[in-house]
Description:
Blueprint: H1 3-7, E1 17-18, H2 29-44, H3 46-51, H4 54-68, E2 75-78, H5 81-90, E3 99-103, H6 108-111, E4 123-127, H7 136-142, E5 147-153, H8 165-174, E6 178-182, E7 201-205, E8 217-221, H9 266-282, H10 284-304, E9 308-309, E10 322-325, H11 329-338, E11 341-342, E12 344-346, E13 349-352, H12 360-376
Parallel strand pairs: 1-11, 3-4, 3-5, 5-6, 6-7
Antiparallel strand pairs: 2-8, 7-8, 9-10, 10-13, 12-13
Helix pairs in contact: 2-9, 4-9, 10-12
Amino acid sequence: MNPSEVRSLFPILEKRAYLFSGGIAPTTTRSLRALQQHIDYLTYDADDLYMHTLDDFVELRRLFAELIGAAEDEIAITDCTGTGANLAVEMVEPLPGSNVVFDESAYPSAAYPWMLPPRAHVERRFVKGRDGLIHLDDLSAAIDDRTIAVSISHVSQETGFRHDLAAVAKLAHQHGAVLLVDAMQSTGALRIDVHAQDVDFLATGAMKWLLGSAGVGFFYAAKRHLERMPPHAGGQGAVTDDRPWDLREFKPKEGAERFHVGMPNLIGLAGTKPGLEILLETGMDAVEAQVLDLSGYCIAGMRERSLNVLTPMQPEHRAGVVAATMEDASKLWEFLYQRGVDTFYHGSLFRVDPHVFNNREDIDRFLEGVDAYLAQR
């Protein structure tokens, strides 16, 4: 598929310029059909549906593994990014006198688990940005031989800055630390290869750039970490097949299946699978090229209008999140929304998040709306 063919799958684009993939993905016609089929099964043939409950579950693990360059048995399906982030933290031993290093725009679910017992004693170090970037030298200065983990958001939801995962992993591993990645703003927008980039743990959710549903998440753990006992235990799906109902012994499955604790979000899986298929049919190289072209075009247009853009212009330092600050961000959002352009604001933060299904005409429509707003202001 090419971006134009992907675009044709989104009914919302017939009337609106949807530029908020960093918040929630609009539904495709493929997902609508899959969701309706699931509802039909649940309504008219629930028994048959139950007997095939794991079909989408198994396929979704395979698709996501292919998408990020992982092995299928390194992938667990969760309910959100935060669940994966907590799993990763729970698998890192909180040694006395140890520390964990964050960048200053890390998402809360990356930091909060370190504040809970028994990790509250772990020192938390936050690295600030300079010139819109989190510099490797600054990260390196914060990491030492007592660092047990480096926890980052691959792409910042606040500034749009993108880390070099391979470079950060190398820094962490030089000191015996592991790399924890929140990839909510990058999976589905950028080509990721967790093996080549040497990532230890990665957590993400399906509802944004992966073109899926809320209530579905993914957790990646490198094989070298999968011999550890999982921090949670649930139904028989996580134990070896030879003892599925043994209440006297817990023998977890090999691989990431040991993290599954119960029935997954079946309707969410049905709504998520088409999104991953679309991304893989398009190819992540093509997706990333489209996202970077549109975000760069958007940044240039916003700068021409003297907006205070936070997102770096260099392609290697950004993805699809384009962020700016302005006092009247909420008024601009409302003005654009009424004109059929969907963006995002939070306080003084204003964001535009183009995806593969967008085109330059969508960005032009947004910029024309900005011009109209500035003129009337």
